[in-house]
Amino acid sequence: MRGAERVKRRRFDVLPYVLVSPAVLATLAVVFYPMLTAMGMSVYDYVVWKPSASKFIWFDNYLAALKSDLFWTSLKQTLLWIGLTVPMQLLLGLATALLLNRKFAWRWLARMLVIVPWALPSVVIGLMWRWIYDANYGIMNDFLLRLRIIENGVPWLATSGTAIYSIIFVLIWQGFPFFAVMLLAGLQSIPKELYEAVEVDGAGIWGRFWHVTLPGLKSVLVTAILLRLIWVANSVDIIYVMTEGGPGSASHTLPLYAFALSRKAMRFGSASAIAVLFTLMLLTLVVLYLRRVDASGETRT
Amino acid sequence: MKKWLLFALMGGLLSASSVLGGQTTIRYWYHLDNPDNDYLKNIIKVFEEKNPDIKIQAELIPWNNYYDNLYTSIIGGNAPDAGEVKLMAMPQLVSMEALEPLDAYIAKWSEKDDILDDLWSKMVHSDGKTYLLPLHYIVSYLYIRQDLFDKYDVKIPTNRDEFLAAAKALTRDTDGDGRIDLYGFGYRGGRAGQEHWGIFALPNAKEMTSAQLKDPWTIEANQFVVDMFRVHKVTPPSAPNDAFTEIMGAFRGGLTAMTVNHIGSMPQVVDALGDKVGAVKVPACGKNGEAWTNFGDEENAIFAASKNKEAAWKWISFLATGPYNKMWTDGSAQLPVTKSGSRAPVPDRYKRFIDATIASLPFAYSLPLTPATQEFVNNVWPMQMQRAMLGEIPAEDMLKAFDELFNGN
Q: Does B304 touch chain A (CB under 8 A)?
């Protein structure tokens, strides 16, 4: 009888694997296989239309990337891109979530509208903002000229001083609703009794925020920042639509550099090397972030 | 078991019916300057009436990504049967073994003598084979705002110095609000802007050999282009990023008084500006008065992987046949490649543009036809040009990058 039960349990244990296998197989096919192919390609002088003529060149593609000025420019701009976009999206998202968590008339409408930038396809956003920023006919210049904030129209996307910041602004606008929605859900899960307890202890607005709200949002914040960090780091679409990485290299980031090398120049070997280098960097950043979060969690407990 | 039999029978019937129907589908890729005017649909209708056994599945690909998509589709094994290809893309496509030689088809083609004689010689690749069948051609000329030239008494430029003088004279604050609202020249620093750059930099460097790119004249001419933006400021501040849409929009909207493009953009320009617009040859900017302007060609090719090459040939040869080629060029507002089409009368309002095109033909050139040309156009030229315009690199470094690409130096 006990033996029969054990067999039954063993059969039942197969079910999770069966259920999870389609997702695992799909991930293996569309993520791991291309990733391994890219790693393999990165050590070849890969002639894409004549694979038989490809030469194994060890790490020459990596060395060439590290020696290239454009690689370091792109890396610097990638760090700027992530370093400005994610914190600004977080701050704006947090402020929006706190506002939307208060009761006011038409709150349902505000909650609906705030999600619009996040819901729009990136290509639409890129095209829309390209026209807003248009140096000659864009409404951004028109607006600022009417307010006399600027004296002459600014070619926002055509100078190295403004191009990347203009695109970062767009990405902040597009991405902050993600934080707002996630944090709003987190805020609603914080028990009201905790606020009442700290109020009894004499805590003000800042005290309530610091001792209840922020710790209550910790798990949501960790997940949201991690996801956004990876998405923002890898995002290419908006930059490509708005400037194609230009003018010159002014808005090149590493993923865009790899994309341009593969798609425009058909240099899949060099592009793969850059993609692998960037993956390693991003992986390091993510591991450091998670270890830091874990460490701070342990300190508190 | 019965179900399987039923499915097998149904499948068999379906495949038999498609064979019995005998209709071959040809996937054809094309691009348009003005996607709102899809004139190809009418041509397909006529073709399919005449060839009921062939169905044309035309796929309109955005011009900016046409070649990116084409190369990717070839590499991915999903190339169309036939499609538009420019001469400059031929070397790379031939080295990809992606094009079908057309010599045997052309030899048997009854309409081959109607194609303009000069065009056949341009189609021959360095391996002696012909891979492309002409479709239309264009030559870049200078669009000018004739009314503004008259109003400000500016001489139409014929050389580099006169061009700069005219551009300076036309760059002005027309309404007295302290802001420049008219620029002399709408320069194209973005995608495909090598057509503008070449007017100044290539008259003595057509082949882009190492010696030509290192020649002091070419270096000075290249510096001249950068200086128009950085020093003389005769181009709009957005020039480094400006591509077709922006330069033509600025010209039609009255922000620029001169720009360079071809007859394909003429209908929209004439609609916006009417008789205010004129067309003249580009200035001769060479050392000894030589000129260079872009020979913009468009051909059709059959891709080597096509399983329906005979049907694909019927379709592309139809597009190069007198009356149907004229239908195409009437729609695209470009020039027919047939002798019969070239003899057709032209409306008066378009005549000045045709005249400027024909006058520019003697010095109209393609970029050097090498496998590097595509990368030059897509990647290297825009990147280097923009970096030089923004002052990130000295202008001379542009030419060094081109030398490295074309000549490996």
A: no
CB contact under 8 A, B255 and A160: no
In terms of Cβ atoms closer than 10 Å to its own Cβ (0-12, 13-18, 19+), residue B256 is buried
pLDDT number for residue B13? 46
- Residue B379 forms contact with A (CB below 8 Å): yes
Fold of the CATH domain B141-294+365-407: D-Maltodextrin-Binding Protein; domain 2 (3.40.190)
β-pair type (B82-85, B54-60): unpaired
Question: Are A155 and B68 an interchain contact pair (Cβ–Cβ within 8 Å)?
Answer: no
C-beta atoms surrounding A120 within 10 Å: 13
Closest residue, chain B, to A47 (C-alpha): B96
| Residue position matching structure tokens 């903002």 | A129
Q: How far apart are CA B244 and CA A242, in angstroms?
A: 15
Q: Does B98 touch chain A (CB under 8 A)?
A: yes
Alpha carbons A207 and A97: distance in angstroms, whole number: 18
Taking an 8 Å cut-off on Cβ atoms, the answer to whether B390 and A248 are in contact is yes
Is residue A160 within 8 angstroms of chain B, CB to CB?
Answer: yes
Of B74, B237, B390, the CB nearest to A160: B390
pLDDT score at A51? 64
- Residue A9 has what pLDDT? 57
Query: B24-139+296-354 in CATH: which number?
Result: 3.40.190.10
- pLDDT number for residue B1: 45
Helix (H) or strand (E) holding A66: helix A60-67
Question: How long a stretch of residues is chain B?
Answer: 409
Fold assignment, A60-300: MetI-like fold (1.10.3720)
Give per-residue pLDDT as tens, B329-351.
988 888 899 999 988 777 777 88
The pTM score is 0.83
Min Cα distance B314 → chain A (Å) is 28
Burial class (CB in 10 A: 0-12, 13-18, 19+), A65: buried
Pick the residue of B175, B179, B241, B255 with the most A CBs within 10 A to test the interface with A by mutation. Answer: B241
Domain boundaries, chain B: 24-139+296-354, 141-294+365-407
Domain ranges of chain A: 60-300
